[in-house]
Design a protein that fits this description.
The complex is a heterodimer of chains A (147) and B (300). The radius of gyration of chain A is 17 Å and the shape is globular. The longest helix of chain A has 9 residues. Chain A has 2 helices and 10 strands; from the N terminus they run βββββββββαβα. Chain B has 2 domains: 171 residues, Collagenase (Catalytic Domain) (3-Layer(aba) Sandwich), CATH 3.40.390.10; 119 residues, no CATH class. Helices cover 18% and strands 18% of the residues of chain B. Chain B is globular, with a radius of gyration of 21 Å. Classes of the chains: A mainly beta (147), B alpha/beta (300). Chains A and B meet through β3, β5, β6, β7 and β8 of A and α3, β5, α4, β7 and α5 of B. β3 of chain A pairs parallel with β7 of chain B.
Chain lengths: 147, 300
């Protein structure tokens, strides 16, 4: 099946404590990974979604702990059990890829709205909400202006 | 430490299955390789590619993947290895002047946490390969170590490629960890006994063990088998029972995503639960589904 789009938006976020903002946007001739349908209306974790002008979901993908709240360790030697540790910094950057679909109207990044200091178990179980919402017109304009 | 301690030599498209605009692009950078060691970097990348392309399901998706190698020469060889670390371990006390500033004990607490300047690695990759999907950094040290996040970082230790594969599972496909403890089994951790939250968004874990509605119902080994496949009898800690089913069985095993009970993983083991295992059937299906847009059309 031919791809319905030719370009993808690479949206780079910067986070510093509770502050999360878009640092820049690039429009790149590339494909994005296929959408994965949500399993539930109420979800925990982080994901991206794109909706059309009627509010219909047209792209959804899970992403893993983009704010790096938890650091993974692998043990002293191969085969040792893996563990998680609370991160020692709450600053960083990450980028996400969303297809620039012809009908795309709204982009949202969803995730738990817990304070950076919240216990891991609390954050992991929390129903996610929108952490960042932007119109595609705005994102395309930012990309056209060099990010 | 940083860009003053080296320079980018060049980029090579070492696996070329088509235009970057049409394929999934993995970019591999090196850190801690002196100019005279870039042949070794080439060999290390080729070694990782050999591992990657024989790892299911990438072996069946190989035609949709490009791999780009970016040669970066550093002033010194290896990585920083601080003499002390928060976990009480001792290192060589070595400082290496490298382009991406790779270091063990990257967060000051965990010796095997091998990190580098991820922001610089990402920007270096994107400047040469704008259509980058996944960035990896191989660090020229034989000591075991690695880390994840926006990029995957791992050493040249024979087993460290497993860290790269696991971290790519997080970064590229949004997989959850399938292990059932946050701080480790037997750690006495609290708050992780029973998962009682919303359905996890990650495709390889679930709070729903109903065989008719579980998110991976199309991949269940035997839909008629009851779920969950196992239950943890002691939710205060990890389940100690063995696997009652064959290794590749897909059902719903109690314990996942850092919770001892109430959150389920598809198989007893998976690369997202313990390194050195294959991806479980659900992870393999999600990888295949995700990379479908990058596969050449039949007959091409």
């Amino acid at each position: 099946m031919p791809s319905p789009y030719t370009h993808t938006l690479r949206i780079t976020f910067a986070h510093d404590g509770p502050k999360l903002e878009i640092k820049h946007v690039q429009r790149v001739a590339m494909r994005a990974p296929a959408a994965l349908a949500p399993a539930s209306d109420n979800q925990a974790g982080y994901w991206l979604e794109v909706r059309d002008g009627k509010g219909a979901l047209i792209y959804h993908r899970p992403i893993h702990d983009p704010l790096r709240r938890h650091v993974e360790s692998f043990g002293e030697a191969p085969g040792a059990p893996m563990q998680r540790h609370p991160a020692t910094t709450d600053q960083g950057e990450f980028d996400v890829l969303v297809p620039d679909l012809p009908d795309a109207q709204t982009f949202r990044l969803h995730g738990p709205s817990a304070a950076p200091t919240a216990a891991a178990a609390t954050t992991l179980a929390m129903t996610a909400g929108a952490l960042s919402t932007h119109s595609f017109d705005e994102l395309r304009a930012r990309a056209g202006q060099g990010g | 430490m940083g860009t003053a301690d080296g320079h980018v030599v060049g980029v090579h498209k070492v696996i070329d299955h088509g235009a970057d605009a049409d394929r999934y692009n993995i970019v591999i950078l090196g850190d801690g390789y002196r100019a005279a060691e870039l042949k070794k970097f080439k060999a290390d990348v080729n070694g990782f590619i050999k591992t990657f392309r024989t790892t299911a399901p990438y072996d069946k998706l190989w035609g949709g993947i490009n791999v780009h190698r970016i040669d970066v020469a550093s002033t010194d060889s290896g990585a920083d290895d601080p003499g002390t670390c928060g976990d009480g371990s001792s290192g060589a006390g070595v400082k290496a002047r490298t382009y991406f500033d790779a270091t063990f004990c990257g967060d000051g607490r965990i010796r095997r946490l091998l990190t580098c300047n991820a922001s610089l690695a990402r920007s270096t990759a994107l400047a040469r390969v704008p259509a980058t999907h996944m960035t990896m950094v191989i660090v020229n040290t034989a000591q075991y170590g690695g880390s994840g996040g926006a990029i995957a970082t791992f050493s040249t230790h024979a087993s460290a490629a497993e860290i790269g594969l696991h971290e790519m599972g997080h970064t590229a496909f949004g997989f959850a960890d399938e292990y059932e403890a946050y701080a480790g089994c037997g750690s006495g951790e609290t708050g992780h006994d029973h998962y009682a939250g919303a359905e996890p968004v990650e495709p390889n874990v679930t709070a729903n063990a109903n065989p008719k509605t579980i998110k991976w119902r199309s991949v269940l080994t035997r839909a008629a088998d009851g779920l969950p496949t196992t239950r943890n009898a002691n939710c205060a800690d990890c389940d100690t029972q063995g696997n009652p089913k064959p290794a590749s069985y897909v059902g719903a095993y109690d314990g996942a995503r850092y919770f001892h009970c109430g959150c389920y993983r598809p198989s007893f083991n998976c690369r997202m639960r313990a390194l050195g295992n294959p991806f479980c059937g659900v992870c393999q299906q999600v990888i295949a589904d995700s990379l479908q847009p990058f596969l050449p059309s039949p007959g091409v």
